[in-house]
Design goal:
Elements (H helix, E strand, L loop, with lengths): L4 H11 L21 E5 L2 E4 L4 E4 L14 H11 L10 H13 L5 E5 L2 H16 L3 E5 L37 E4 L4 H10 L4 E6 L15 H12 L2 E5 L11 H6 L5 E5 L9 E5 L1 H4 L18 H14 L4 H22 L5 E5 L2 E5 L8 H5 L3 H13 L2 E2 L8 E2 L6 H15 L2
Parallel strand pairs: 3-13, 5-6, 5-7, 7-8, 8-9
Antiparallel strand pairs: 1-2, 2-3, 4-10, 9-10, 11-12, 12-14
Bound molecules: pyridoxal-5'-phosphate.
The site of pyridoxal-5'-phosphate has 15 residues, from helix 4.
């Protein structure tokens, strides 16, 4: 008997908690059985049951070129032939660092790690060391990986106020963390006032992707820059999702606000496990072995991951890539909005370049609270029907959708057609 996703998921649930290695993949928010992937190609995923899906998950962001782009595949094959882990410096680390520092002028030096989670927890350690202060202000619905200090009102996977989102996170681990509403500068001022001289950093997803997509209102990011500077705190942009996504230079280029530290991941590894954090040299020089702030990694700077990242960024440098992503994403968003309107369904689309969310909410959706007020039942139904019509959206209303350069005009048109069918009662 041939293995199906159904039988494989039953086996997986015996062996892996919830049958998966990252919670959202289990489809709990939408119901049903997740499909098991046989392979990815361009804009498509193929499951082991023989179905094809247009993929808007794109590995939750990294695959900005689509699946198995030939240039990245070639770079990986070339790298594999030379061995895949050295525990000694390799030239690709320097090359990727040069590409990143050239793309983000605020990043003078960078340290590679293995995930976005490692990047944000290490950036916070550095901010605390550099300022000699313990406090951090984050925003409701922003996700900064699963380190203890950030698991307060942490968006997509988890959700509260001043209380840890997960058992196993002691109150002491989040006692220095304040979470306030996104787009609310007054709340940021109040959080500073509550902890005078004690805030090391404000950390923010400059365009939020983990509460669904929330866009910064005009002046919000500049306001964060001004208040952190005035208070002697650092501004950390968590660009793990937005870096090389909303512009080649990330959200800091798109919105014109310069942070002290930047966290990266996802696209800079081209789909392999990578994270990075970087910023001003005077700050980064405090990281070991240049300075006393300890942070290390057995597999950090892994040559395969570096090779995939370099090939991905080089492909993104081709003229017109971001204009193309912007135009196709705008076409898709307009098509989805028109379909919802035709059937009288309240819907709001928030989009930053090639990442977007369709909220079943009349709008505007500017905060996590507003995102959570959207119609969850309708999302579940829509998600199921889109799968039936061959389109894979993330199985959560609070995850962004991503286009890749492999999503051409025909794929976009097919998606709009599927949405028309899925939204029709
Ligand atoms: C994905 C993500 C992370 C966590 O990265 P992992 O590689 O999953 O640990 C952190 N911050 C943001 C903004 C993300 O989107």
């Amino acid at each position: 008997m041939q293995t199906s996703s159904e039988t494989l998921f039953a086996r997986a649930q015996q062996l892996l908690p919830g049958g998966v290695n990252s919670p959202v993949r289990a489809f709990r928010a939408v119901g049903g059985t997740p499909f098991f992937v046989e392979r990815g190609e361009g804009p498509y995923l193929f499951d082991i049951d023989g179905r094809r899906y247009i993929d808007y998950v794109c590995a939750y962001g990294p695959l900005v070129l689509g699946h198995t782009p030939p240039s990245v595949a070639a770079a990986l094959q070339e790298a594999v032939a030379r061995g895949w882990s050295y525990g000694a410096p390799n030239p690709l680390e320097v090359e990727l660092a040069e590409l990143i520092t050239a793309a983000l002028p605020s990043v003078e030096q960078v340290r590679f790690v293995n995930s976005g989670t490692e990047a944000t927890m290490s950036a916070l350690r550095l901010a605390r060391a550099a300022t000699g202060r313990p406090g951090v202000i984050k925003f409701d619905g922003c996700y900064h990986g699963h380190a203890d200090a950030f698991l307060v009102s942490a968006g997509s996977g988890v959700a509260t106020l001043g209380l840890p989102d997960s058992p196993g996170v002691p109150a002491s681990a989040v006692q220095h963390t304040s979470s306030v509403p996104f787009n609310d500068l007054g709340a940021v001022e109040a959080a500073f006032a509550r902890a005078p001289g004690a805030i090391a950093a404000v950390i923010v997803e400059p365009a939020v992707g983990n509460a669904g997509v929330l866009l910064p209102e005009p002046g919000f990011l500049a306001g964060l820059r001004a208040v952190t500077r005035r208070e002697g705190a650092l501004l950390i942009f968590d660009e793990v999702m937005t870096g090389f996504r909303v512009a080649y230079g990330g959200a800091q280029a798109r919105y014109g606000v310069v942070p002290d530290l930047t966290c990266l991941g996802k696209i800079i590894g081209g789909g392999l496990p990578v994270g990075a954090y970087g910023g001003r040299s005077d700050l980064m020089q405090q990281i070991a072995p240049a300075g006393p702030v300890y942070q290390a990694g057995t597999l950090s700077g892994n040559p395969l991951a570096m090779a995939a990242g370099i090939a991905t960024l080089q492909a993104l440098q081709a003229p017109g890539t971001y204009a193309t992503l912007e135009q196709r994403s705008a076409t898709l968003a307009a098509g989805l909005a028109a379909a919802a309107q035709r059937y009288g369904i309240p819907a709001t689309i928030n989009r930053a370049g090639s990442m977007f969310s369709l909220f079943f909410h009349p709008g505007p959706v500017r905060t996590f609270a507003e995102a959570k007020a959207s119609d969850a039942d309708r999302f579940r139904h829509f998600h199921r029907r889109m799968l039936d019509h061959g389109v894979f959206l993330a199985p959560s209303a609070y995850e962004a959708a991503f286009l890749s350069l492999a999503h051409d005009d025909a794929v976009v048109a097919a998606t709009v057609q599927a949405a028309e069918a899925a939204l029709k009662a």
